[in-house]
Amino acid sequence: MRISMIGSGYVGLVSGACFADFGHEVVCVDRDREKLDLLRQGKMPIYEPGLDELVAVNTAQNRLSFTDDLAGAVADAEAIFIAVGTPSRRGDGHADLSYVHAAATEIGRALKRYSVVVTKSTVPVGTGDEVERLIREANPDADFAVVSNPEFLREGSAIEDFKRPDRIVIGTEDERARKVMSDVYRPLSLNAAPVLFTGRRTAELTKYAGNAFLAMKVTFINEMADLCERLGADVQDVARGIGMDGRIGSKFLHAGPGYGGSCFPKDTLALVKTAQDAASPVRLIETTVAINDQRKRAMARKVVAACDGSVRGKTIGILGLTFKPNTDDMRDAPALDIIQALKDAGASIRAYDPVGMEQARRYLEGIDFVDNAYEVAQGASAVVIVTEWNAFRSMDLARLKARMASPVMVDLRNIYRGDDVRAHGFSYVAVGRPDAESRQAISGIAAE
User: Fold this and answer.
1) How far apart are CA 236 and CA 34, in angstroms?
2) What is the pLDDT at residue 447?
3) How far apart are CA 332 and CA 317, in angstroms?
4) Reading across the β-sheet that carries 168-171, which strands appear in turn?
5) Which residues contact 407 (CB under 8 A, 6 or more apart)?
6) Which residue numbers in the chain have pLDDT < 70?
7) Same domain? 319 vs 387
8) Which CATH number covers residue 156?
9) At what angle do helices 200-231 and 127-138 cross, to 10 degrees?
10) Do residue 42 and residue 145 come from a single domain?
11) Does 366 share its domain with 290?
């Protein structure tokens, strides 16, 4: 099939490359000529494991190409995916649909044959109706259908998620569009990927509901972590215990500094705003958003407490900057708020991330970026693990300690065993796992 992908960002590029790998003929459209030049040279504008190879193979086989000519790409396409950004709109938190609307109008002007226009971008309920209206306004005689097909890709695992999805959600009540979308995803039938055909508005809401539920799971276990610290329990064992229940599941039950990235923050906020406008508020999601916003700076206070109550004039080493490992995405990363709070408290910051340094420089000023974890430790009064990169899981603790002004480790991802770290002479602080002194104090109170 001939497919056009409008937008060559994270979703568009991964989706386009994977569709091409299925054997479809895919043209990715983008207005950023610098990005297009990089892609044509085989250089990826984002970090995603395996994406460079996938693009290279399918470009060489002439199944994947890149252009800034939307009209040319759309004219013969059987399926046209809109995969442009929908960031939070400044001022009110609603999703900014200006790029989606602009793409719809331009697509309408370029349509020459029956085509299925697919919103792949994460959009509020009712966006498909507006896309349809804009296309019809631009081209009253156009023969087309508008479908919702939300993406469910995890950064760092996007290719695997696309090729072996938990589900494919397709929102349409048009039989011709259903046939086209079935053909688009036919290669996945070999993997027996479950396909859910539903109404367009239902598909749009499904994406937001899914992300909101996962965000609630993250926030729930973070609150349990705080309670564990107060009561002398271990949140990791609590998570294992409840995760064994098939009704709950073990995923997204890892306590830490709060969620970030390109999806959860903006999607939960957009759902809150949509629900408020519909006079059907989602109180659980509203609370989730508020707790997560507060948690990031609370993690900075945990660091300050680990440094005897003050970081003024001290150097704090930050290990990991991106919101999660295996990506260079810094959007709403917990590290941003944690670092700012530590700077506000008077600390100097040394930081390292295996992949995200270039992106981090766009977000962070006045900090010292270094080349590895051991340089982060140089002269530091504490090292703080913010992102759970594999490179940080087996550091030489003796070497790390030798470079530090004070051997304090604050592990916000619980990737170490406290006893192992303390055996090397560190003071060790984790999330939801009280140290031995805290347990003794709690036991003493209970005994009284």
Assistant:
1) 45
2) 43
3) 20
4) 64-67, 25-29, 2-6, 79-82, 115-119, 144-148, 168-171, 195-198
5) 401, 424, 425, 426, 427
6) 435-448
7) yes
8) 3.40.50.720
9) 150
10) yes
11) yes
Indicate the number of domains in the chain: 2
Residue 298 lies in a domain: yes
Residues 266 and 88: beta-carbon distance below 8 Å: yes
* Residue 263: active-site member: yes
Q: Is 227 helix (H, G, I), strand (E, B) or coil?
A: helix
What whole-number distance in Å separates Cα of residue 219 and Cα of residue 287? Answer: 9
**Are both 185 and 215 inside the same structural domain?**
no
How do beta strands 115-119 and 79-82 pair?
Answer: parallel
User: Of all helices (H) and strands (E), which one includes residue 26?
Assistant: strand 25-29
Return the pLDDT at 180.
97
The predicted structure's pLDDT at residue 92? 80
Q: What is the pLDDT of residue 445?
A: 42
319 touches 384 (CB < 8 A): yes
Buried b or exposed e, range 51-76, using 16+ CB within 10 angstroms: beebbeebbeeebbbbeeebeebbee
Residues 204 and 208: their CA atoms lie apart, in Å, by 7
Residues 58, 283: Cα–Cα separation, whole Å: 46
Q: How many CA atoms lie within 13 A of 15 on its CB side?
A: 31
Containing domain of residue 358, as a range? 210-439
The span from the CA of 128 to the CA of 145, in Å, is: 10
> What is the C-alpha to C-alpha distance for residues 170 and 184, in angstroms, rounded to an integer?
11
Strand partners, 364: none
Residues 183 and 293 placed together within one structural domain of the fold:
no
Marked catalytic residue, from 18, 228, 263, 307: 263
Question: Residue 434: what pLDDT?
Answer: 80
Identify whether residues 187 and 243 lie together within a single domain.
no
Same domain, 281 and 177: no
Spatial CA neighbour of 226 closest among 436, 432, 402: 432
**Assign residue 95 a region: left if phi > 0, alpha if psi is -120 to 50, beta otherwise?**
beta
